[in-house]
Amino acid sequence: MAQSQLAVTSRDSAGKGVSRALRRQGLVPGVVYGKGVEACNVAVDPKALSQAIATDAGWNTLITLQGEGSFDGKVVILKDVQVDQLRRNPIHYDFQAVDLSKKVHVMVPVHTIGKSKGEKLGGALQIIRHELEVVCLPTAIPTSIDIDVTELGIGGVVHINDIKFPTGVEAAPHEANFTVVTVVGHKAEGAAAEGAGA
Predict the structure, then answer these.
(1) Quick check: 125 and 119 in contact, CB under 8 A?
(2) Most buried in the list 64, 66, 97, 165, measured by CB within 10 Å?
């Protein structure tokens, strides 16, 4: 469980003019919302936020907000970042307040372990889903969903229902047993074709 603190400033007004004024000061507008929390507008130092989420958990870092406002002492996670399409710099942050005693839905990156048998035969490992939505308590959010691929041969597949999640963590409800990781044999097939041509 990664935790950090972030000082933010309350802002009473919203709108494009206010947002532009904040950005001239090197700040980015944001909003804090969540069950049992009155939505409030805040101003955030992007450098300070980058430091706050510079953990193994990334966006899923539990951040305790500090400052003069109803948000003071609230634990939040970074839920969304709007980015300027041209300059690629952040222009708005969304923070979701969380109750540490209630489960949340979060996206967690997929991490494969080992080298598959199929890769050793010339196949290629493909991660179809780079992130998975999971449900767990905020304090149990894993830094990654680890999948051991060492036994996967060419054509091997790992579906969502095949994955063993950490204790206290489960996959978000889903209808289809979708593919998360697979090993394809294009490289091997290409090598065979070249050999036949020779």
Answers:
(1) yes
(2) 97
